[in-house]
Design goal:
This protein is mainly α and 171 residues long. It has one domain: Ferritin (Up-down Bundle), CATH 1.20.1260. 81% of the residues lie in helices and 0% in strands. The protein has five helices and no strands. The longest helix is centred in the C-terminal third of the chain and has 34 residues.
């Protein structure tokens, strides 16, 4: 049987990390939305996921409050800055929309793994009341990852078609 004190420590650290991770997600997605003129479905889905992410942050704050903790301002700020930098790193690329799509899919899968681990830590540490809120976040991340993966072919085809016709395909 696992040491529940250590399991709780892992859970609390993971919870703070998840909050910072979602702040990072916002800083990655928000700059992309305004740069997707030729990709309205992608823009619409990113806007919807931004809203989901804001709700996920509320859920994480609710769990943090319920265990007498708060988010880590330092982690939130640091990962938000990292996310903004990551989002800007593809702006100069001729295939920006493709690179962003690949990065979005990778980040969604990272979030999925983080929530699976966090749910496990919640269960092991006896914080099972947090599980439904964390599972709601996990379900949204899985749906977003599935959507991005399923739309990479269409995004790629649109990019090629626009580029081939002489249009600006980046945004």
């Amino acid at each position: 049987m696992a040491d529940t004190d250590y399991a709780r420590e892992v859970f609390l650290t993971g919870l703070k990390n998840a909050h910072a991770m979602e702040k990072q997600a916002l800083s990655i997605m928000q700059p992309q939305v305004s740069r997707l003129k030729h990709y309205p479905d992608l823009s619409k889905r990113l806007e919807a996921h931004i809203s989901e992410t804001e709700t996920q942050l509320e859920r994480l704050s609710e769990v943090l409050d319920s265990v007498g903790e708060s988010s880590s301002t330092t982690k939130d700020a640091f990962l938000s800055t990292v996310g903004s930098t990551a989002a800007l790193s593809h702006v100069a690329a001729a295939d920006e929309v493709l690179k962003n799509s690949f990065a979005n899919l990778a980040f969604e899968n990272y979030e999925i793994a983080a929530y699976i681990s966090l749910i496990t830590a919640a269960q092991v540490s006896g914080e099972s009341k947090a599980v439904p809120l964390l599972e709601a976040n996990l379900d949204e991340e899985r749906r977003m990852a599935e959507w991005v993966a399923g739309h990479i072919p269409l995004i790629t085809e649109t990019f090629i078609s626009l580029k081939d016709s002489g249009e600006t395909a980046k945004v």
